[in-house]
Write a structure and sequence with these properties.
Arc Repressor Mutant, subunit A, 2 strands, 2 domains
Length: 180
């Protein structure tokens, strides 16, 4: 058995070969499945490529798309947050010309770094905490940076107890019940 795993451009080249041989998209798909099993292109993809070939589009590489994510440096975001930390994700996304979710992931990483600094500060300023491994009880809302995957993972490694915050329930805020 071969360990060769074809990439999509290679498979598109094979489709072009079958197109030139005047085979149908269904026949080409059947041959690909027989030859490459799970690594074959789907029937729909084969039909789409045959349609492109019929329209004299023989470019096998992916075309540039307008929806491709724009790259930016974290420093740009840090600078914007240092100037005004109250900016919303959508405002930051518009300024940086990226999707809101991209900014959310980065601000989640930034929040994780804040938690790391907090953990270190606790160990330095409260030596008994480090010796006795006292449990920290953390309460924060469900803002995207607070529930981002890197933050959740880091909090699990710290073994801090995170109090659940009821979503969209300002009428039952824990601060109203003398939690603080």
């Amino acid at each position: 058995m071969s360990i060769f795993v074809p990439n999509k451009v290679y498979l598109r080249g094979i489709l072009l070969h079958y197109f030139i041989q005047q085979k149908s998209a269904a026949e080409a798909h059947s041959i690909l499945v027989q030859t490459y099993d799970n690594n074959a292109l789907s029937d729909t993809t084969c039909r789409d490529w045959f349609r492109r070939f019929k329209n004299n589009d023989f470019e096998l590489e992916d075309k540039e798309r307008s929806g491709a994510p724009k790259k930016f440096e974290d420093k740009e975001l840090e600078q914007l947050l240092d100037e005004d930390s109250s900016q919303t994700l959508s405002e930051l996304g518009k300024i940086l010309q990226v999707d809101e979710s991209t900014v959310s992931n980065i601000t989640g990483d930034r929040y994780r770094l804040q938690l790391m600094r907090l953990s270190r500060a606790l160990k330095e300023k409260r030596p008994l905490y480090a010796q006795r491994h006292d449990k920290v009880i953390l309460f924060h809302d469900n803002a995207r940076p607070h529930v981002a995957k890197p933050v959740k993972t880091y909090l699990e490694t710290l073994k801090w107890e995170v109090l659940p915050h009821p979503p969209y329930s300002p009428d039952i805020a824990p601060s109203d019940f003398h939690l603080f």
